[in-house]
Design goal:
By secondary structure, this protein is α/β, with parallel strands linked by helices. It contains 13 helices and 9 strands. Strand 2, helix 5 and strand 3 form a beta-alpha-beta unit. The longest helix is centred in the last third of the chain and has 17 residues.
Length: 260
Amino acid sequence: MPIYNSIGQQYSKTRIPDIRIVNQLIDLLNLPQGSTIADIGAGTGGYSLALANQGFFVRAVEPSLVMQKQAVEHPQVKWFTGYAENLPLPDKSVDAVISILAIHHFTHLEKAFHEMYRVIRDGTIVLLTFDIRFAQKIWLYDYFPFLWEDALRFLPLHEQINLIQTNTQRRVEAIPLLLPHDLSDLFAAAAWRKPELYLQPEVRAGISSFALANQDLVAQGLQLLAADLSSGEWIKKYGDIRNLAEIDLGYRFICARLDS
């Protein structure tokens, strides 16, 4: 059973696509309106819908029916139930491929990237991923050290890039995504300037690293964070972070293009 059948039941409430990420995606894809894009690991279809609203046709691939049922219907978004390693799409059937914060859930990256290569024509593959090794170690990891430890188990960026280059025959570029302080898509580190949001169960439910973690460790961190916010200790220790408008927490677009 896809893990998001259990942890993704309220996903659409807090994982609202951020228009700045959407705009950067469109810039990197560099496609005319009317092009067809495959969204792999589409979740509840937030980014698929955003692209459809900008005039694109989207093939949204997602294994979890629980996630699919939360999607807003759009005539230019067609849903497919399937996994990245065995895409239910014909050869050379799309103009581009995207995958937004999903590849850490893929079971076999080499197969997944090869499948992206199989279904794409001559367009661009854009992935939003992360490598904690590039991140500033902010307050979040003092309260929830398991987040840092778990993230270190994910494949380093250079290894991700090597796999994509090998399996898609494309030139790959990594582009930092600096996180603004007011993201609407509340993924793992998105609320870096709003610690109180992590106290909300619905926010944590939309973050797989919280939902899948040892809940005793989560509870310990929450208790300490709530106490420090209440006493003013958090402000004393970490308040300077609120002077920042954006921050590099290791998130990267990987853009794979054919050599022109």
